[in-house]
Amino acid sequence: MDMPGSPNFAARAAALIPLLRATASEAELERELPASIIRAMAEQGLFRLMVPRRLGGHQLDLRHYVEVVAELARGCGSAGWLAFILNANDWIVAAVFPEAVQQAIYGADPDTRVAGVFEGAGSIGAAEGGWVVSGRFAYCSGSHHSDWALVGVPLTNEVGQVIDQAMVLMRTADLAREDTWHVGAMRATGSITLVANEVFVPVEFVTTFSQAGHNAPGARPDERTYFTSFVPTVVLILVPALLGMVRAALDHTIERLGQGKRVAYTFYGDSREAPATQIRLAQAACLIDSAYLHVRHWADRLCNLAEAGQEMALLERAQVRMAASHAAQNCKDALEILLDIQSSGAFALSNPMERIARDLAMASRHGLMNLAMVQEAYGRVLLGVDARNTPLL
Questions:
Q1: What is the pLDDT of residue 1?
Q2: What's the pLDDT at 6?
Q3: DSSP three-state, residue 176
Q4: CATH number of 114-208: 2.40.40.20, 2.40.110.10, 3.40.50.970, 1.10.10.1590?
Q5: Which residues contact residue 158 at a Cβ distance below 8 angstroms, ignoring those fewer than 6 apart?
Q6: What is the band of 346 on the pLDDT scale with cuts at 50, 70, 90?
Q7: What is the assigned CATH class of domain 9-112?
Q8: Cα 2 to Cα 57, 61, 68, 155, 311, distances in angstroms
Q9: If residue 125 lies in a helix (H) or strand (E), which one and from where to where?
Q10: Stated pTM of the model
Q11: Which of 57, 53, 128 is nearest to 86 (CA)?
Q12: What digits encode the pLDDT tens for the residues 223-247?
């Protein structure tokens, strides 16, 4: 939580919006954020928001994190996404790994960055003093700018059934990099594939989803931000980047309307005067407001429970997943309305809206935001039916 007199990181992020917007096209072309952007974000402390204060970080709580990442994504979707990934991984390291691991990663430099992806095709086997890991970990956002990677490896039983998911911390220097990120959106996240070939990992650098979130083994009693329920936090922490992107779409649409855009095939010379524009713009803004309210409500709830030393109950865990996916859907629905308002001109290559639309369309389809699957899980919990097919609750 912010202490009295601590920096306003949301304001710092907002101050970078002009620079982020000015370099967004370059970042997309190069498929990587420019060094100037990485440097500016680091100088403002925006890559150590969730690192413990005892290790030189800012130990921000979830409430404030939401605002910071949303502001960065208003400037550039890829920058907001990297801020989400890198800070979320810092939170995970502090929440589920022992203090010795945290010291090994951040002790010499609190700006050390941890890339990561939980979905991967790999194997893990026991070895003396640790584990040996092999596998391919695609869509590993932040890999270009990180010294460590946090990856997921399936754990199977003797008949090959997946029974859990390991979370493994490895140095990126021990991994090969394959440039597989050839996509039509979110291009500047550099979400390449990292490859482990029988990498030895000390035992303390491996944990599992089933162990995560129960006791925050490396956190101290006064570091309540690391005691928020694990899966709900991991889910909710993704959404602020989407909020920022759709807010950028709204900002840009209002700006474009202010330039006297006419409504084609009508006598409205200024589309701001058309009731249809007014109504549709209000609908989009309301959808965005609703998405923000969902995220802020559950961020507050998670923080309040952690501060009271309480774990989130199953029903609320399902509600968080439902709220996060619903917020993502609101962002997608609002985007469609804003594209309708701008009409075909939104897709001109000279119009930033076309990049914003592509980025949001892709980011909002992250696997954790699969609305139909989440609705099924929420419905099962409401009915008291086993939701085993959606274990991340």
A1: 41
A2: 56
A3: strand
A4: 2.40.110.10
A5: none
A6: confident
A7: mainly alpha
A8: 12, 7, 13, 38, 22
A9: strand 121-127
A10: 0.93
A11: 57
A12: 999 999 999 999 999 999 999 999 9
